[in-house]
Write a structure and sequence with these properties.
The chain is mainly α and 107 residues long. It has six helices and no strands. It has one domain (2-106). The two termini are 20 Å apart.
Length: 107
């Protein structure tokens, strides 16, 4: 089961690269603002997978280089919801695995 979760993290990281996602939804600051340990760990694992990626983007480097007036955005401003929420989706799975393992070991 852990292998399946590990594969989900690796594949989710790859999807972030494929769609050239901004990396701010995985940021330490954002994910530390919540008390969900699993969410924090999944975001940390994804940051580790993507640390040397040339395909993910930093929002501050891409969108905010210069201030210009535009009537519409040419690029998406926010990642797809299903991509942004990966730590919140896989985090409870990790929490459940850890809790189950702890109970089994104790019993």
């Amino acid at each position: 089961t852990r292998k399946l979760l590990d594969w989900a993290v690796v594949c989710s990281s790859a999807i972030n690269e494929i769609v050239a996602a901004y990396d701010d939804h995985l940021s330490l600051e954002l994910n530390q603002s919540k008390k969900h340990i699993g969410q924090r760990k999944i975001a940390e694992q994804m940051r580790a997978h993507l640390k040397d990626s040339k395909l993910t983007r930093k929002r501050e480097h891409h969108l905010y280089k210069e201030v210009t007036e535009v009537s519409f955005f040419e690029d998406k401003v926010q990642e797809y919801y299903s991509i942004r929420c990966i730590p919140q989706i896989l985090g409870p799975v990790l929490d459940t695995l850890n809790t189950t393992e702890k109970i089994l070991v104790e019993e």
